[in-house]
Amino acid sequence: MTPYTLLVSLHILLIVTWLGMDIGLFTSSFWVRNSKLSPETRLAMGRFGGLMDMGPRSSLVLMLGVGILLSYYGGWALGWLPQPVIWLIIALLLVWLWAIWQQYLAVHDASAGHDIGRRVVFMRQFRTFDMYLRLAIAMVMIGLGVASFFNLLGQTYGWLNTKFILFGIILLNGVAIRFVSDDFPIALGEIVRLGSTPEREQRLNRALSRAYPFVLFLWSLIVVLLVLGVTKPF
Ligand code: HEM
User: Fold this and answer.
1) How far is CA 192 from CA 10, 24, 45, in A?
2) In terms of residue numbers, what domain contains 32?
3) Residue 11 CA, ligand 1 centroid: distance in Å
4) Most CB atoms within 10 A, among 79, 137, 140, 193?
5) Number of domains in the chain
């Protein structure tokens, strides 16, 4: 057993926390949409979904960090970067992960009616920053993958270049999910506070059902990345 094989194991474990918890989130959405259930039950399922959502959100950041370490120390890619830069990227990814959890805790506390004080920054400014950060990382990943295919970054492997590009697409897909389901917390909040109306139910349903195709696309991309990692076909 070496640190590298432990990293490979962590890389595989992250698929479970990503895909597994995302399936939990997806399933909980059917309870949230069920207007026959009491608003309290639907709110509780919504909160459960919020917690499940932290699986994919955390796994994405960790998967990127572990993937970068595997690429570098396995000699697969990124060898042109100095080692301190790799560790700086890992440190920044950990700060990003910490901020994502701060955002979750701030939203959770605010919805429970607690004062969130200065953490309000994570509900407003950080949300926008996080979106642009995802877009920027997506562009970098796609750019690295494409540049590698054109042999601009030394010796690389086609399967890993493809993984870089597809991971960029996963990030873009995540931003799209956030856009199309933006109305979801507002609609659920109104149903719980003001009661169910056909208009509110329709708003909630629309926000969730518009996200489903993107979610299924995300799952298939994860499977493709998994198969590419295992088979390393080209
Ligand atoms: C959803 C995202 C991802 C999934 C599901 C995934 C899955 C996998 C799997 C199953 C393996 C095979 C592990 C084994 O040898 O048994 C693997 C290998 C690998 N992955 Fe990923 N991966 C993902 C993202 C990434 C990213 C973003 C990078 C790079 C930044 C990356 C870099 C690597 C490398 C370098 C290996 C080769 C490890 C080795 O065999 O020595 N992966 N991946």
Assistant:
1) 39, 22, 12
2) 3-231
3) 6
4) 137
5) 1
Question: Quick one: tokens of 196?
Answer: 């169910």
pLDDT at 182: 87
Per-residue pLDDT tens digits for 93-148: 999 999 999 999 998 888 777 888 888 888 889 999 999 999 999 999 999 999 99
Largest CA distance in the chain: 60
pLDDT recorded at residue 155? 84
CB of 23 closer than 8 Å to CB of 234: no
DSSP 153-188: TSS--HHHHHHHHHHHHHHHHHHHHHHHTTTHHHHH
Least Cα distance to 188 among 79, 94, 49 occurs for 49
Question: Does the pTM of the predicted model rise above 0.85?
Answer: yes
Ligand 1 neighbour 169 (Cβ under 6 A): no
Nearest CA to ligand 1 atom 11: 229
Given this model, what pLDDT does residue 189 score?
87
Q: Which atom of ligand 1 is nearest to the CA of 170?
A: 1
pLDDT beneath 50, residues of the chain: none
Q: Ligand 1 pocket check: which of 11, 57, 64 to mutate, most ligand atoms within 8 Å of Cβ?
A: 11
